[in-house]
Specification:
Strand order of the largest sheet: 1-2-3-4-5
Distance between the termini: 193 Å
Strand content: 5-15%
Length: 464
């Protein structure tokens, strides 16, 4: 009976902790020791209560309790064996899965993947720093900017987190998506005077940005757009106006495929005034000669046109010569003197030649100066070229290097002098040819009429 009682009590002790486990949390070793003592005292009290209840029960009830305890013990043993087998199987499965995980990690090369992602982030940071799309997506308060985050990610030594990997992908994908879109948004625009204003910006991909009918340039150091101090020609700005006034559809626009580089070079291109200033004294001398040549050409052209109109008018009425045109004065020199008609033919010819020669200098006026300008222009340009090359070689000697920026002024002076010399020589050459053609035509007309009058006079004398 004593063995049976111990079996029932021990079985009951096994069942009750399973049915009602005691949980506790120890903050220190002393708390843990006190908790163990408390649990031990509770277990002893529970054991005494169960023993008292078992001894007080009748014999038939004790037998029933013994059978129930044995059944529970057998069930718990079976459950324990099942859980033990399941635990062993789980241990084997975990070991297999860990081995597979190590193989997969080695196969994928996570370290190499992280290294590639950092390299890609570093390359993308450089692109995003120079991209004007950054003005459309400014950093939020307390958050790193796009390029700053990518640069910090690429320089980090630890393993990146999933959130960081996701943002790297997001920033690259957003840049790719925005590069193919035309967007209108509010952003800070720095005016030529230095003041920053909030304005509406129209962005064409990462290539061109405009605002208020003007082209904008992106300054990475300021992370803002600024207005070009000098704008392109009006035909370029007309496209900007049409783009800003468009509500949708397709509109022609100016797009800089080099992301602002070509437009900056076009804006920085010197004007004609700056080019002339680069030619210095030689350039001004060439321009003065050219201006005098053009003025002489215009004056003489107007004079010759007037003479030609008067000669044509006189040709229609040769019997009544007038002194307001060259041909009329030649006719009056012959017909106005009755004694000249009766004199010897040689004398009459000389008098007529005199009248013609008196008109020729007026017809050929300024042509010698134009020929001088045609010859002097290229020579003065050559002088400017030589001076420019001297300055170039001097800058190379003083600096000890062949930096193109140091040689630019000298080469620019050399080239602009040559261009200015040829620029005045070629127009003056055509101008002189035109004046020569008109003056020769008028001289030929005067000679023809003079010879005709002389022949007519001699013929009349012979008939008489």
């Amino acid at each position: 009976m004593s063995n049976l009682r111990k079996l029932i009590l021990s079985t009951t002790l096994l069942v009750l902790p399973v049915m009602a486990p005691v949980t506790f949390a120890a903050a220190s070793l002393d708390d843990l020791l006190e908790s163990v003592r408390t649990v031990r005292a509770q277990e002893e009290q529970s054991y005494k209560e169960r023993a008292t209840a078992f001894n007080a029960a009748p014999a038939d009830q004790q037998e029933k309790m013994l059978q129930e305890a044995q059944a529970k013990r057998d069930g718990l043993e079976q459950l324990s064996n099942t859980l033990s087998d399941q635990f062993s199987n789980n241990e084997l499965t975990i070991n297999v899965r860990k081995k597979e995980l190590r193989e997969k990690a080695a196969l994928l090369g996570l370290a190499e993947i992280f290294g590639v992602s950092k390299q890609v982030a570093g390359d993308a940071a450089t692109i995003l720093r120079q991209s004007l799309i950054s003005t459309q997506f400014p950093a939020k308060a307390g958050e790193q900017g796009r390029d700053e985050f990518l640069r910090a990610y690429s320089a980090a030594q630890g393993t990146p987190t999933p959130a960081e990997l996701e943002r790297v992908w997001f920033e690259i994908q957003r840049e790719m998506t925005a590069s193919g879109a035309v967007a209108k948004y509010k952003s800070t625009v720095v005016q030529p005077g230095g003041e920053a204003v909030e304005a509406e910006v129209i962005r064409i991909g990462p290539f061109t940005a405009t605002s208020d009918g003007k082209f904008l340039d992106y300054v990475p150091s300021l992370k803002a757009l600024n207005v070009y101090p000098r704008q392109p020609p009006e035909e370029f700005l007309a496209y900007v106006d049409r783009l800003q006034s468009a509500d949708g559809g397709y509109v022609q626009a100016v797009v800089d495929s080099a992301r602002g580089v070509l437009l900056s070079l076009y804006v920085d291109r010197p004007s004609w005034g700056q080019r002339i200033e680069l030619g210095e004294e030689i350039g001004y001398i060439i321009l003065v000669i050219g201006a005098l040549g053009v003025l002489a050409f215009l004056v003489q052209l107007v004079y010759l046109v007037g003479v030609r109109m008067g000669v044509n008018r006189q040709l229609k009425n040769l019997e009544k010569p007038t002194a307001d045109n060259a041909l009329g004065r030649v006719l009056l020199a012959f017909k106005g003197d009755p004694n000249l008609i009766e004199q010897d033919a040689d004398i009459a010819e000389l008098r007529i030649s005199e009248a013609v020669l008196r008109e020729v200098p007026k017809l050929e006026r300024f042509q010698a100066f134009l020929r001088l300008g045609v010859a002097a222009g290229p020579l003065l340009g050559l002088v400017g070229t030589v001076l420019g090359m001297i300055l170039t070689f001097q800058s190379i000697t003083e600096s000890g290097s062949s930096d193109p920026k140091l040689m630019a002024d000298g080469i620019g002076q050399a080239m602009i002098a040559t261009v200015l010399g040829l620029g005045i020589a070629i127009p003056l050459l055509f101008a002189n040819a035109l004046l020569t053609s008109i003056s020769k035509g008028l001289s030929q007309t005067l000679d023809e009429q003079a010879v005709g009058m002389l022949a007519e006079s001699i013929e009349k004398q012979r008939r008489a």
